[in-house]
Write a structure and sequence with these properties.
- The radius of gyration is 12 Å and the shape is globular.
- About 25% of the residues are buried.
- Strands 1-2-3-4-5 form a five-stranded mixed beta sheet.
- It is an alpha/beta fold.
- Helices cover about 20% and strands about 20% of the residues.
- The termini are far apart.
- It has one domain.
Length: about 90
């Protein structure tokens, strides 16, 4: 298990998932250990219409432009604090 995944699971705000790295409020969470893995993480979320969360190290927040992340996709830090809220899919 990666350090980031271990820390976010220990926060108590997310749950383990077999399909995803974790889930937060029933939405998928994809771990982004480094900025080079961002495009791969976004592709994973595309499979569910982009609805979900990217989990990043808070110290890496300044490395990418939040406006480039889909409006449907949220961002949480290593302590599962919301940095950008995700939209909830309409069913």
């Amino acid at each position: 298990m990666s350090n980031l995944k271990e820390q976010i699971i220990n926060s108590g705000k997310v749950k383990n998932s077999e399909e995803w790295d974790a889930t937060y409020n029933k939405l998928p969470v994809v771990i982004v250990e480094s900025i080079t893995a961002l495009s791969e993480a976004l592709e994973k979320l595309d499979s569910v219409g982009g609805y979900g969360y990217l989990c990043i190290w808070k110290k890496d927040l300044f490395l990418f432009n939040m406006k480039l992340v889909s409006k449907r996709c949220g961002v949480i830090d290593e302590n599962a604090n919301i940095l950008k809220a995700a939209r909830i899919p309409k069913n």
